[in-house]
Structures are given as structure tokens and as C-alpha cells.
Specification:
single chain; alpha/beta; Rossmann fold; 48% helix; globular; Enoyl-[acyl-carrier protein] reductase III
């Protein structure tokens, strides 16, 4: 009887949908992964450096009754993305959801940027998104059940933010690529959208030289009376991944408490 119960659990896990969230060992990515795990998705945690954080997050998610695979991969390199998807194929054999959350950037005034700063930001934020989306879509097509892709953007894609040139331009490309992917993948029942957020107090913001000023300004000027939290962005992502958003295609949903309406 114990053997049969174990076999049933294995079969149940094999039929569960799988979500890959890039850069998900902490911050917004971890929040999204947690919400997906609570919905019953098996999870792929992708990280670039901190294995300890990734395994800590994975263990938390396993407590929710799902299977979790952690994969170290620099998504700016196509061969590393291919290796990551090979591991996903071996472990789960499917991908149903992709959240392009991993991002980086060099925070400098435009006249202080050099080629390495530009390449670093564009490779992670744009090439990584393209390669991950291509490989996820290939698997979603083969499965015949479709899927959904959501990418994270920011208000810097549409408006000027101090020292934000490389990231802002890369996020504008994220939103543009979202539209192109959406049109070409829609016939395969793969929905592609993006979520753009206002200032969020995460670890990534500690790299901003004007962090405190930025957060204070955002809080004071946001009509909703507070800055955006990771939970707010994750909720929008979950909506776009849900059946309720089945006819939303190629859109960027802004989650900023209304601050962008004032400028």
C-alpha cells in the first residue's frame, strides 16, 4: 500500500504545470514563485550567484507541497539558457509558464556610460528575455496546451529617471519585444504580456545612489498613498497568467499607484 501511495504522488507531480521564474531566489521573483507554488505549480528557481538564497527559497516552496528545481544560469549567455532548459526537460519534462523577472543594469549618467555598461544591461535584460522566451515557447508548442509568458518592466521605459539610462532603454525593449512575441505566439495559444512597476523597495534598489530620495519622493507623490510592494507586482503577474486574462495579448500593465498619471 505504501508503494502505491508513493506512485500516486509521483504521477500527480508529473501532471502538474511547471513555472520558470528567472532571478527568483529573492525579491519580486521569490514573491511570484511563492504565489505560483500556492496555486499548485511546480517551480524552477533560476539564480545567477547566491546558491544559498536559492536553496533557502526552494525549501520554503517545497513546504507548500510542490517540487522545486534550482538552476544556476547566467541568462545573458545563450548556451547557459540552453543548459538550464535541458535540466528542466530532464527534471520536469515541461514548461507551462515563464516569468522573465531577472534584471540588472549600470546606474550612471548617459555621458558616463561605456560599451561594457551597455552590453551588460542589454544582454541580461533583453537577450536573456529573448532566449528564455524562445525556448519556453518551443516547449509550450510541443506540449500542445499553450502557456503564458510575463516579463517585468518599469516606469523608466517611458519616462526619465535619474541615472537610469541603460535600464530604462532595456525596459522599453522588454515592452517592445513583448508585443512582437505576443503576435507571433498567439496562434499557438501562448499569451505574452508584461507588468511595469513603480519604485519598489527591494535589494536591487540598494544600488541606486539616490535610493532614499527616490523612495521618499515616490511615496509622497503616489496618489494611492504608498509605494508599490513586491506583492502588488506579483498579483498583477498572477492575473496575467490566469484564465481570466485569456484575451489580454501583448499588453504592459502598469502597477504604480497612479504616480505615472501625474507627470
Amino acid at each position: 500500500m505504501k508503494f502505491l501511495e508513493s506512485e500516486e504522488v509521483i504521477m500527480d507531480q508529473s501532471t502538474k504545470k511547471v513555472a520558470l521564474i528567472t532571478g527568483s531566489s529573492r525579491g519580486i521573483g521569490k514573491t511570484i514563485a511563492t504565489k505560483l507554488a500556492k496555486e499548485g505549480y511546480n517551480i524552477v528557481i533560476n539564480y545567477a550567484r547566491s546558491r544559498g538564497k536559492a536553496e533557502e527559497t526552494a525549501e520554503e516552496l517545497r513546504q507548500l507541497g510542490v517540487d522545486v528545481l534550482t538552476v544556476k544560469a547566467n541568462i545573458a549567455k545563450k548556451d547557459k539558457v540552453e543548459e538550464m532548459f535541458a535540466q528542466i526537460d530532464e527534471h520536469f519534462g515541461r514548461v507551462d509558464v515563464l516569468v522573465n523577472n531577472a534584471a540588472s543594469g549600470v546606474l550612471r549618467p548617459v555621458l558616463e556610460l561605456d560599451e561594457s555598461h551597455w552590453d551588460w544591461t542589454m544582454n541580461i535584460n533583453n537577450k536573456g528575455m529573448l532566449f528564455c522566451s524562445q525556448m519556453a515557447a518551443e516547449r509550450m508548442k510541443k506540449q500542445g496546451t499553450g502557456g503564458a509568458i510575463v516579463s517585468l518592466s518599469s516606469l523608466g521605459s517611458q519616462r526619465y529617471l535619474k541615472n537610469y539610462t541603460t535600464v530604462g532603454v532595456s525596459k522599453a525593449a522588454v515592452e517592445s519585444l513583448t508585443r512582437y512575441l505576443a503576435v507571433e505566439l498567439a496562434p499557438n495559444n501562448i499569451r505574452v504580456n508584461a507588468v511595469s512597476g513603480g519604485a519598489v523597495d527591494t535589494d536591487a534598489l540598494t544600488h541606486f545612489p539616490n535610493r532614499d530620495e527616490l523612495l521618499t519622493d515616490a511615496k509622497d507623490r503616489t496618489p494611492a498613498g504608498r509605494i508599490v510592494e513586491p506583492e502588488d507586482l506579483a498579483d498583477a503577474v498572477m492575473f496575467l497568467l490566469s484564465p481570466q486574462a485569456k484575451m489580454i495579448c501583448g499588453q504592459t500593465i502598469v502597477v504604480d499607484g497612479g504616480i505615472s498619471l501625474l507627470t
